[in-house]
């Protein structure tokens, strides 16, 4: 998962609070997104995989990179606001074009004591 | 049968070969994956994964963090053919059901691995999101088709 380097030292949770800590300030919605497309090489290998079935490692990596980038952008935005945590984090995806996908992550930037 | 006739039948032969590969290899890979999933799920039972979001006030929480797990599982050729036939007649697509099931369970297990690596005691408010880089839901323009799942939740370490 996104380590301290990617989260800019922020605490991320999918619930309304950071358990064990009190929220002292709200900064509102922060988000990060990335649009990724697969490249031909990956697609070619994937189409071979489509004959046999099984895990598509190249796609898993692609999604992991996308997740890291989106999370990093969201955290940079929260950090710039002065937040030290993002609560209620959600991931969302949309398909903007065939072969490309958007990974969007959003949450509420807060300061916890 | 002459070579000429065989040559004329090459598309049909290629199709038959691909379907057979999908049937034999695809089924074996799927069966192995299910066995592996069951084993890993059993061995990770000690870490509860909840969709609940309630944090009990009595818990002394040492650490809270977002954990994620990603899995992309491809269809095999037999599933592809079975699905296009099903699309014609309508009804339940059992081959896709197992595919999505595998991808979801794999993603959850990877998320649990990430939580265990942090020494977490529980994962709260778990959500599953399906992505579509491969165009699985876009009908796929000759593109690879796969189920892509992101599982995520809040890993808590309780003292």
Kindly state the mean pLDDT of chain B as a whole number? 87
Name the assembly state: heterodimer
Q: What would the principal axes of the Cα set say about the shape of chain B?
A: elongated
The total beta strand count of chain B reads: 3
Distance between the termini of chain B: 76 Å
The main sheet of chain A orders its strands as: 1-4-5-2
Q: Decide which structural class fits the backbone of chain A.
A: alpha+beta
Can you characterise this structure?
- The complex is a heterodimer of chains A (113) and B (159).
- Chain A is built from two helices and five strands.
- Chain A has helices at 40-52, 57-81; strands at 11-12, 23-37, 53-55, 85-97, 100-112.
- In chain A, strands 1-4-5-2 form a four-stranded mixed beta sheet.
- Chain A is elongated, with a radius of gyration of 17 Å.
- Chain B has helices at 3-8, 10-43, 77-89, 94-117, and strands spanning 61-76, 122-131, 146-158.
- Chain B has four helices and three strands.
- Chain B starts with a helix and ends with a strand.
- Chain B has a three-stranded antiparallel beta sheet.
- The model of chain B is unreliable at 138-142 (pLDDT under 50).
- The interface between A and B is large, with 46 and 57 residues.
- Strand 3 of chain A pairs antiparallel with strand 1 (61-76) of chain B.
Short overview:
The complex is a heterodimer of chains A (113) and B (159). Chain A is α+β, with helices and mostly antiparallel strands and 113 residues long.
Topology summary:
The complex is a heterodimer of chains A (113) and B (159).
Chain A: E1 11-12, E2 23-37, H1 40-52, E3 53-55, H2 57-81, E4 85-97, E5 100-112
Chain B: H1 3-8, H2 10-43, E1 61-76, H3 77-89, H4 94-117, E2 122-131, E3 146-158
Antiparallel strand pairs in B: 1-3, 2-3
Helix pairs in contact in B: 2-3, 2-4
């Amino acid at each position: 998962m996104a380590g301290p380097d990617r989260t800019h030292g922020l605490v991320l949770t999918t619930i309304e609070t950071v358990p064990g800590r009190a929220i002292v300030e709200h900064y509102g919605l922060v988000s990060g997104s990335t649009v990724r497309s697969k490249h031909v090489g990956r697609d070619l290998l994937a189409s071979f995989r489509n004959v046999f079935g099984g895990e598509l490692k190249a796609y898993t990596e692609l999604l992991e990179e996308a997740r890291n980038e989106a999370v990093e952008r969201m955290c940079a935005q929260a950090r710039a606001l002065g937040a030290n945590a993002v609560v209620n984090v959600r991931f969302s995806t949309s398909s903007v074009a065939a072969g490309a996908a958007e990974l969007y992550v959003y949450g509420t930037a807060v300061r916890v004591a | 049968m002459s070579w000429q006739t065989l040559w004329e039948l090459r598309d049909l032969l290629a199709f038959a070969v691909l379907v057979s590969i999908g049937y034999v290899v695809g089924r074996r890979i799927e069966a192995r994956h299910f066995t592996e999933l069951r084993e890993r799920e059993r061995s990770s039972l000690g870490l509860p994964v909840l969709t609940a979001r309630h944090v009990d006030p009595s818990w002394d929480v040492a650490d809270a963090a977002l954990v994620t797990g990603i899995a992309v599982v491809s269809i095999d050729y037999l599933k592809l053919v079975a699905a296009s036939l099903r699309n014609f007649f309508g009804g339940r697509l059992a081959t896709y059901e197992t595919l999505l099931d595998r991808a979801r369970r794999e993603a959850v297990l990877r998320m649990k691995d990430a939580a265990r690596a942090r020494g977490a005691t529980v994962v709260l408010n778990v959500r599953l999101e399906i992505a579509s880089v491969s165009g699985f839901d876009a009908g796929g323009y000759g593109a690879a088709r796969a189920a892509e799942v992101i599982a995520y939740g809040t890993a808590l370490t309780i003292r």
